[in-house]
Write a structure and sequence with these properties.
Length: about 625
């Protein structure tokens, strides 16, 4: 009962909140946000279930009980004595966990979690200094040294605080946290900017957060500050630990060239992804073709020369980032989980600009492989580093000293519903991801519900019921993923022409009546994939992919336990089989090569059973 009341209150609040004067996002198409999407399929429902229970509990225990993260706020609030403990950017983990909890409230009302957020917000508000400054590391340990080292993540933490506050406002309608965020952003606006202090944030994040705050409040100065911060880069203004480090220097944090001149990917992977996401957001608002051109250039470099088959990026551990083009080792691959999340954030924005499905292809690859590998199926253990081969000693952990990845996953998962649909008055509905769900949106003043039924990513059949409030004409653009070589399409069982694919979408245009049913069947055979020959690590090897999922061999599944004995050839055969009882339910692949049989599981599901070796790229003899 309480749950029901809370749920309806929340719905009313969402409507009330969305009814106030807020500038709409200015991308050429608009995402349908996850609070309008109810996920119903088996695949994502079990991920979300694990999130709402195990993952959020882990984040709460780790930030509040097992580490000093919440205590740092309590101390900065003057409610406990002592110094700041932990890493200087630990505040950000609290904010990311809070963002995840807030998002989760929208579809899974939970009064205890809501009360916990209220409690933590109380500490945070008290820890905020009278002028709006907020950072427990400096406030507790170095109160006179604020803004002396651009690497020290003061704006990074602030950006995550803003994102959490916006999420909390959207979920609950309460302004307690949003007020902290606007106080902080006002303080930044008064301190930094033309004729004020220069600043190059050593770790990007604040840029996209300020645009979010602009959307939530309508205050254009936040958007202007974000734009100004982007323009600070590449002019020799940066200083601090990163800039002083001979091995890193300004390129590590994308401060080597002005942002509109970026063309080669360099430096720290997560920082780059957040920068590009922020640039896209500002470009969408301010119409900056030089930004979009730079983003397209660097996208070619990231995706064409520096991305793993899993959509993971940032191959090198020494800089948590990019190294030379095509240098993509498997065992040593760094591929931080946060960097894959960054790929989702950035590629989604690139699609919102262009309506080109090639960006969603990359987003989907990173989401189903790079990101999902970062979490155990139970939702309580995490990978920070995601190699594509293991000798059996790499395992998910409950938490990390530097815990950016668990907290990032915890805010990402509940927002997955936002990536399914986008809409535009002139171009109609874009169906970007195939996820069983019911979604509400508006199409040219007509309320529209879309009900998607599918067993994706295990099978390629998708049924989409179109339910306009009244008959209405608009295009429905269905993404045909780049991995799909053949497909069939019907509307109300009548076969449709599939020739006219444009930018990766096939478009259906008609006068839609409530109950019209689109059936799309994407053929999903097992594919043997060769890497670009310039990737030395994969010469003489092949990987296996089916649909959006990259597969791997794990020792535990093989009869003779010897992964090196599995050698593929042109004569190898593969069969996708339903293994509904295995792990969380899956389609596994049974292979036969020479006289050996082997079993493959999706890469994201590896290391959920007993320890053992794993490989994505397998030896291949012509
Ligand atoms: O610096 C904050 C976060 O910690 C980065 O995004 C991660 O790469 C890790 O270094
Ligand atoms: Zn991380």
């Amino acid at each position: 009962m309480i749950k029901r009341i809370l749920k309806s209150t929340i719905l009313v609040l969402i409507l009330a909140v969305s009814g106030c004067q807020k500038p709409a996002q200015n991308y050429t198409v608009q995402q349908v946000p996850f609070n309008q999407v109810k996920i119903t399929d088996q695949f994502w429902s079990s991920r979300l279930e694990a999130h709402a229970h195990a993952m959020l509990e882990t984040c709460i225990v780790q930030t509040q009980d097992s580490t000093e993260r919440i205590n740092n706020f309590i101390k900065a609030a003057g409610l406990m004595d002592g110094e700041h403990k932990g890493i200087y950017f630990d505040d950000s983990d609290v904010y990311k966990a809070m963002e995840g909890i807030a998002y989760s409230l929208i579809n899974n009302p939970n009064p205890e979690h809501e009360a916990l957020l209220d409690e933590w917000i109380g500490y945070i508000a008290k820890a905020q200094q009278p002028d709006g400054y907020l950072n427990t590391f400096y406030t507790l340990n170095h109160p006179n040294e604020r803004w002396t080292d651009m690497e020290k993540h003061e704006m990074y933490c602030g950006g995550h605080m803003i994102e959490a506050a916006v999420a909390h406002h959207k979920a609950t309608g309460k302004t307690t946290f949003l007020n902290v965020a606007t106080n902080f952003a006002d303080y930044l606006y008064d301190t930094f900017g033309p004729e004020k202090k220069h600043w190059v944030p050593g770790h990007e994040e604040i840029e996209l957060a300020l645009v979010k705050l602009y959307h939530e409040t309508g205050e254009k100065k936040y958007l202007d500050l974000s734009h100004w911060l982007l323009e600070e880069r590449g002019h020799g203004l940066g200083h601090g630990a990163i800039w002083d480090n001979k091995d890193w220097g300004p390129a590590y944090c994308q401060d080597d060239v002005p942002v509109s001149e970026i063309s080669d990917i360099k430096g720290h992977a997560v920082r780059a992804m957040y920068l590009f996401s922020g640039m896209a957001d500002v470009a969408a608002e301010k119409d900056l073709p030089e930004y979009t051109a730079a983003l397209q250039r660097v996208w070619e470099d990231v995706v064409g020369r520096n991305m793993y088959i899993t959509g993971g990026i940032g191959s090198s551990g020494s800089n948590e980032g990019f190294s030379k083009d095509y240098e993509l080792p498997n065992k040593e691959a760094y591929c931080e989980t946060c960097a894959s999340i960054g790929m989702v954030l950035w590629n989604n924005r690139m699609n919102l600009f262009s309506q080109d499905a090639k960006y969603i292809d990359v987003m989907e690859r990173s989401m189903y492989n790079g990101v999902l590998a970062g979490i155990s199926l139970e939702g309580d253990r995490f990978f920070y580093v995601n190699p594509l081969e293991s000798e059996g000693h790499h395992h998910r952990q409950e938490w990390f000293g530097c815990a950016c990845c668990p907290s990032n996953v915890s805010r990402f998962l509940p927002s997955v519903g936002s990536y399914i649909y986008a809409v535009s008055e002139s171009e109609g509905v874009f169906v970007n991801l195939y996820v069983g769900s019911t979604a509400g949106m508006e199409m040219n003043d007509t309320k529209l519900e879309l009900v998607q039924n599918t067993n994706y990513p295990w099978y390629g059949k998708i049924e989409l019921e179109v339910r306009p409030e009244k008959d209405a004409s608009f295009p429905v653009n269905l993404r045909i993923p780049d991995w799909c070589k053949s497909y069939s399409l019907s509307v109300n069982d009548k076969k449709q022409n599939t020739e006219s694919k444009e930018n990766g979408y096939v478009t259906l245009e008609r006068n839609w009546e409530r109950g019209d049913k689109i059936t799309l069947t994407l053929d999903m055979p097992v594919e043997v994939v060769a890497a670009d020959p310039r990737v030395e690590a994969n010469i003489g090897k092949r990987a296996i992919q089916r649909g959006p999922l990259v597969y791997c061999i794990e020792e535990i599944d093989q009869a003779n336990k010897n992964l090196d004995a599995i050698q593929l050839s042109g004569a190898s055969t593969f069969e996708a089989t339903n293994a509904s009882g295995k792990l969380d339910g899956m389609v596994e692949i049974q292979g036969e090569t020479g006289d050996a049989n082997f079993t493959m599981i999706p890469y994201f599901a590896w290391d959920n059973r007993e320890a053992g070796r794993m490989k994505v790229w397998i030896d291949y003899n012509e």
